[in-house]
Amino acid sequence: MRPFIPLGVGATIAFALSLVPVARGADSPANPALEKQYAETVSKAYSYLSTKGQAADGSFSMQDGPAVTAIVAHGLLKTGRSASDPVVVKALAYVQKFVHPDGGIYGDGSRHKNYETCASLPAFVAANGDGRYTDLIAKADAFVRSIQWDAKNGVEKSDDKFGGAGYGDSTRPDLSNTAFLIDALRSAGAKPDDPALQEALIFVSRCQNLESPYNTTPFPAKNPDGGFYYTPSAGGSSPAGETPNKGLRSYGSMTYAGLKSMIFAGVGPDDPRVKAATKWVQSHYDLDSNPDMGSAGLYYYYHALAKALDAVGSDTIEDSQGQKHEWRTDLIAELAKRQQDNGSWVNENKRWMEGDANLVTGYVLLTLSYCQPKK
């Protein structure tokens, strides 16, 4: 199922982004070769996960708590496996062991309660066709909301932490974890006008290199390129580094995370934030690397790109040179090319855990779920 977009926003945003909308229906012909490549790629991934990736207890990379297992289960469900698939059943049963009385889904003593819960929640939503996880979902939703940085936690709107979320309930907020929070709440039914999403939008806007009434932090004036960085909190930080004048460099994965988060929170195509992000995205369309980060976080980047462009609602993106790209076709081909002989994916750059084939294969399945060719 495609992500919810408020009525009319998808098509209008597509125009604003110079993305050419092409209906994926009767006027969009099937491509048997692409369909075959997609099916074979997903099938090889399933073979790896079911025979090599999954441990006897149902986990994937159990040393990392429930998150990797949940991401893999979610990816399998989004690419066609049912909630009764044995690999999915075992994986979700394993993740359920991490459900706490407070509704959170995290390891004992974890410092990543928000991240682990937000990674797990969408998997249970995707498997909840018969309602078996309804209570679990409601409690996890409430837990995520409870640790968002806002007035209930003593954070005023003027504070650069307001509306954000970090790895846990006491870590500084960042755009990556805030985007995870937005995605998790949306999966559980939150609409764009939901107070938690609107508060998150305040933080997201402060992560953009754009001077505006929405971002009065000192960073955008030093690098006003319209992209997004990791966090303005605790002195500000970007893994892409700083500009010579101490601005925070924008980079690919966070810019797509920022763009999709704004769309999910109902920001329209004429808003200056969307227009600025649009310009950055068009100038940095790239599947060889995570723009301005190289190979670091490459597979996380692919997922953010696919989810953002899917939310935009177009099959093509026009880059700054005027060249149109069928991004879904491009991504399927790129990911098929990068697939290992055993069916997995892994990043030689191990930063952000992308040396873990289970995690990266989960990311790729989620990415491919937004690339499914018309049959």
Please give a structural write-up.
It is a single chain. This protein is mainly alpha-helical. The chain has one domain (9-369): Glycosyltransferase (Alpha/alpha barrel). It has 13 helices and two strands, in the order αααααααααααββαα. The protein has helices spanning 9-16, 32-53, 67-78, 86-96, 113-126, 134-146, 175-187, 195-205, 252-264, 272-283, 298-312, 327-338, 357-369; strands spanning 316-318, 324-326. A two-stranded antiparallel ribbon has the order 1-2. Helix 8 runs antiparallel to helix 9. It is globular.
What labels describe this entry?
single chain, 375 residues, mainly alpha, Glycosyltransferase, 13 helices
Largest sheet: 2 strands, antiparallel
Shape summary = globular
Strand proportion, as a percent range, falls in under 5%
Radius of gyration equals 19 Å
How many discrete domains? 1
Strand line-up across the major sheet: 1-2
CATH class equals Mainly Alpha
CATH topology: Glycosyltransferase
Mean pLDDT rating? 92
Number of strands: 2
Structural class label:
mainly alpha
